[in-house]
Amino acid sequence: MDIRLLMWILFWIVVTTALFIDLAILNKHKGNIKTKNAAILVCIWISLALLFGTTIYFTLGREKALEYLAGYVVEYSLSIDNMFVFLMIFSYLTVFPKLTSQKF
User: Fold this and answer.
1) Which residues are CB-contacts of 45 (< 8 A; sequence separation ≥ 6)?
2) pLDDT at residue 104 in the model
3) What angle separates helix 62-92 from helix 35-60, to the nearest 10 degrees?
4) Contact 46, 23 (CB under 8 A)
5) What does the domain layout of the chain look like in residue ranges?
6) Which residue, 37, 94, 103, 104, is the most exposed by fewest CB within 10 angstroms?
7) Taking the model in full, what pTM does it have?
8) Distance from C-alpha of 31 to C-alpha of 98, rounded to nearest angstrom
9) Cβ-based neighbours of 36, under 8 Å, separated by 6 or more
10) Which of 47, 75, 53 is nearest to 65 (CA)?
11) Is residue 103 scored above 60 in pLDDT?
């Protein structure tokens, strides 16, 4: 079997498993999540991404691993930028934190 096909299969298994864990298991809290728990989850997801990057390094080489890492850092920084924009909009419109955690 081609290593690239194997990596794609592994990628989709990891993504599907991660989505299931995040949406079905970890998303059972009601209301706000504590900062400590959020920091732990962020560390777990970043570690998972770096582990996948390490797998790319050992199977496809240094150049592909660096491309993956560069793409991951760019996407992660853009998601943090989006969170900053949401925070600025909510602050400007004086949306209270209690209102942002309600389910509709």
Assistant:
1) 18
2) 47
3) 160
4) no
5) 3-14+29-100
6) 104
7) 0.71
8) 8
9) none
10) 53
11) no
In Å, what is the CA distance from 69 to each residue of 7, 8, 9, 43, 89?
16, 17, 19, 16, 30
* 3-state SS track over the chain: CCHHHHHHHHHHHHHHHHHHHHHHHHHHCCCCCCHHHHHHHHHHHHHHHHHHHHHHHHHHCHHHHHHHHHHHHHHHHHHHHHHHHHHHHHHHCCCCHHHHCCCC
Nearest to 62 by CA among 74, 49, 71, 53: 53
**Residues in contact with 1: Cβ distance below 8 Å, sequence separation at least 6, in sequence order:** none
pLDDT, mean of residues 2-26: 85
Cα distance between the two ends of the chain: 47
Cα 84 to chain centroid, rounded: 16
Determine if residue 61 is left, alpha or beta; phi over 0 gives left, psi from -120 to 50 gives alpha, anything else beta.
Answer: left
Determine contact, residues 64/11, Cβ cutoff 8 Å.
no
